[in-house]
Amino acid sequence: MYSVSPQQNSEASRPFLTWQRIIDWAQEHYRVRSFSKDEKIPTRPGLLYLVQKGAVRLVGTAQVNATSATRLARISPEEAFLGFVGTGQPFEIVAQSPFTLQSYAHVDQTSVVWMYWHDLDNWPHFRREVLDAFRYQHQRKLLWLSTLGQRRTIDRLLGFLTLLIEEYGEPTDEGYCLPFPLTHAQIGSAIGSTRVTVTRLMGKLRQKGMIRTQGDNLLCLPTDSVLTTGNA
Amino acid sequence: MYSVSPQQNSEASRPFLTWQRIIDWAQEHYRVRSFSKDEKIPTRPGLLYLVQKGAVRLVGTAQVNATSATRLARISPEEAFLGFVGTGQPFEIVAQSPFTLQSYAHVDQTSVVWMYWHDLDNWPHFRREVLDAFRYQHQRKLLWLSTLGQRRTIDRLLGFLTLLIEEYGEPTDEGYCLPFPLTHAQIGSAIGSTRVTVTRLMGKLRQKGMIRTQGDNLLCLPTDSVLTTGNA
What we know:
By secondary structure, chain A is an alpha+beta fold. Helices cover 38% and strands 24% of the residues of chain A. Chains A, B: Pfam families: HTH_Crp_2.
């Protein structure tokens, strides 16, 4: 349902050959659990997680800042949206001060399998698939960092949306659309901006025809935009 | 020389067991080349690169922005500093519009080995080390994205410096210091800010005792800061 579009994402979407066997194994061993929208997925460092169904949202929290002595910073640490993990994709959460990573179910009925790395000894080929998936995710994050280095917020916003929709978008009448909603506050938290600013700049991008929205606030890129951004 | 500090970075710094054999193989097959400071390292997608000596700087260029029709954007695309690749570490550059990634030697006499992925068929254990290294780099980039989601530039700056020095810093009298210089323009390009702003905010952080500089403009974190940021 929320699968990665094969056309745009050939590396990450190649079939996990032993996927069904993993799912069977996980059910036999009670290593699978379902979560409702925005429910926190408990994780431990050193474990490997696989999204069986739905989508996971990764979030980072900074515990270091230049004004951390103030009460404000202690009450509301800033949470940053770090991206999705789609169906069939692995993720791991390594605890690391001064930043912490967390995972949430982004949609209802998100189902997650967990295992120890050594459980993969049974499936050496699958282990390699998982490591290749992390390699791919790493490359995507480098592109993401490229856009966050841009000075103007509107450029970071457009770059961010382009990367996200390029990876997770599905073809519709409106172009390529994200299959799940993302709030303006979440977008702001990813690009170092605020909900208010994101709302304003989204309006600008919509006016210029650079983005669209579909139905229940789903974000879209016009098809020609996806095809031609490389030549811009 | 520019090795990763084992104490702070146990996963990435575990010895590459077959490292010497790889170096020998690379020299025999003319797969190693030396670069001077800031020289561009030519790369092709699908190839794997290993830093034998020195340090590599990854840079991303955005080719999409909300005002790309203007002449200004065409003349000076924004380059973002995306991090270092230290001695013994692998990197790869996957071409991907609307962003391009590039690599430069960050210090003189940086030496880089290149190979095809299938060359690693000879060293299956080493292949796994490389994939684990990418897995580690991916986790670091998630932490990096966490700090770039912070709204205030000074928080992004401090978070960025903390992560960088935590990973690459070496113990000195001034605390943990980066072993190579990084310009304020490069720092600004990483955190979505300008050279001028970085210079101003670095002054503030220095006044507060949150960062230091050593000798020839090397960036340092006071030792107690590294140890206590998690409790801030």
